[in-house]
């Protein structure tokens, strides 16, 4: 086993506990940053470019028909193949935590749709499920089993928030273990079925699961209810006949008490177990080899790498399987670096050079690779807005995989992806929903100037309330460019002149009295 350090050139603060890695044709993609994506990479998915022990993160591209994929930490993730020997595969992502610490119950499929020397394009599709749909959770696992020519996914374990009916003021946002139910998902029909097995009594999270053919092995994990790391080794066998599936569970000896461990595959039948925790304050520095042969499992201790002093003395560590027998490890570097959220990163190679690195991986792996969230009882610890540690140009866009029209078929910008104005910033490869009514296309509104043209509501700085009001009311709208011109063409409004109130006339009685007194005065002067 080899261990060497890599230097993160830019934006290493995005790599925090709970992230996931996707391996497509030996290209590793990072998914699950801690905060919401920014304009530098609105998709939140990055291509990890590691050359000469330097780690660079380059924004990834998605196809037009992709749905929005939020950054999810601690999700369940595995690969899905049409059959056990297929070369083509896609990733399944279920559950996880959003940057606002909301839990997701959605399931996504991510696949590689095109690849050339300049650009790799991914596609993300959300799948609707029916039946016994698993509740929103994190820290669980998902695997794919193959039996009798059929395939199904299996979800087990995880944590979720306390049900609303059981919450109290003191523990309103506390988390609990999910019920130890086994969920079978048939993606062909979108049906879910749950099974309660007597051998599974306690809920588990941050465990390791390895699937081979029709069998899943579950190892380790942490139980919140008992605050223990179970040393049991469970064997789930799934039979898929023409009728209803049959699920059985067997408890095997030789388990390991560990949580948050990482599993990587080094051969068709061999896996390496790395890292994790013995207890809340004790890391597990021992490595093991797991061998699966003839429906049997064997776990033996193997020689560990020469851990650096920083790794030995750090309190927590985290990482994820990169595929092909390699693991990306991270440790906090807050005491030695200027920024408090900077980390050190290492790549651990578990496969010897004599091994064929091009060997196809036919076994499904799913392991919760990150440490338990230290703020389970305070789910709003990460709710503040996340900021990049560098500017947009720190991604080295000139050196990144950028679009070149000579590399792909002509895709003219039409419909929703037009340049609506000079300041338009809507790009098909980086757009994310801005309004709650948007799904996979940006909201647009018709400008009534001249023959009319469409503009993006977001580019016009329209609030969601105003956008809904304009869509419901039968009024004309003018974009920012033509609103002043429209005002100049309007007929000036008619000015209403104010009416002047006439003066009040003297009362008749006062006038009669004044005339009488004047007549008497005249007669008096005449006779005098």
From TrEMBL:
Pfam families: RAG2 (PF03089), RAG2_PHD (PF13341). It is found in: Nucleus. GO terms for molecular function: sequence-specific DNA binding; zinc ion binding. SUPFAM superfamilies: FYVE/PHD zinc finger (SSF57903), Galactose oxidase, central domain (SSF50965). Zn(2+) binds at residues 420, 424, 447, 453, 456, 459, 479, 482. Residues 415-492 form the Recombination activating protein 2 PHD domain. Signal peptide: none annotated. One of its GO terms (cellular component) is nucleus. Keywords: Chromatin regulator, DNA recombination, Metal-binding, Nucleus, Zinc, Zinc-finger. Belongs to the RAG2 family. This is V(D)J recombination-activating protein 2. The lineage of its organism: Eukaryota, Metazoa, Chordata, Craniata, Vertebrata.
